[in-house]
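Predict structure. Chain length: 314.
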Amino acid sequence: MLTGLPGTGPVLVACSGGPDSLALAAAAVFVAPRLGRPVGLVTVDHGLQPGSADRADAVAGWARTAGFDPVEVVAVRVAGRPGGPEAAARTARYEALVAAAGRHDAAGVLLGHTRDDQAETVLLALARGSGPRGLSGMPERRELDGVPLLRPLLDVARCDTRAACAALGLAAWTDPHNTDPAYARARVRAEALPALVDALGPGVVANLARTARLLADDVAALDALSAAALDDVRDAGGGLSVAALAALPAAVRSRVLHAWARELGAAPADLSHRHVAALDALVTDWRGQGPAHLPGGLPVRRHAGRLVQGGAPA
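Prediction complete.
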C-alpha cells in the first residue's frame, strides 16, 4: 500500500496512542524507510477529555525517539460543529490530518482502522438502513481534498494489533469513549458484535468485513456505469431526458440523479434517499406533480420530457 504513492514526501501516520494506531505506527516506521519513503506522525488532540494534551504530547515524544520525522501534535475544536459528537470529532480530525499533510507535502496519511472496525461499520450501516455504499464500509484508499487516506489494517484483527503492541513493549492508551454506551459504535463493539459472534461463530467479523469489500467492488462498478450514463442522458441545456432516464436500471438511475443533484448544488451531507426518490418519481411515477425540492431550496421540475432546475409549473 505504500508503493505507488505520489511524490517523495513522507507518509504520515495518524496515531492516537491506542493499540491499533500504535501498532500501525510501529509497522510503518519499520517498513516505509526500507521502501525509500520517509515517515512522520500526527496525533490529534480533540480536547474532549481531561489530560488529552498530555497524552498527545506523550505520543509525540515516543514518535520522536522511534525515528518519525516530522512529528506534530494538532489541537482541534470539536464543539459547535454540526452532527453528533462522533461525527463532529471525526470531521475535525480529518480536517487536521489533511491540513498536516499539506504542511509537510505528505504522500498520504495512514489510518489504523482494523477488520473489527470494518465489521462494526457494516452493522451500523445496516441499522441505519444504508444502501450498498454505506454497507461497503470504509475503503482501503480514498482521497480527501487531494490527500490519499490509506487503511492498511482493514484485514487485520484488533486482537492482533494488541498482541503486536504487547510484543513490542508499547504501552497503548485505551480511549474511554470506546466503551461509553452513549456512543452507538461503543454499544455495537461491546454488545451487538459479541452477541453475533456468540450466535454465529467467530467468523462473523471476517465475513462482515468481506461483505464490505465485495460491495465496494459492486459500488465502484455501478458508479462507473452511472458516470457514463449521466453524460448520455444530459441534453445541451443541462437538463436530463426523462425517456433516457426511464430506460436505465433503477440502481444506475438513482446514482445518476444523485450525481446530478450534487452538480446542481445540493450539499452532499444533506442529500438523502428521499430527495433522490422525489426526483425518481418525476421520471417513473409522473402524475403532473410539482417540483421536487433539493437541499438548499433547489427545485427540480419535469418539463417537455426533461428534468430541469426551476420551480415554474410543468
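Summary: The longest strand covers residues 39-45.
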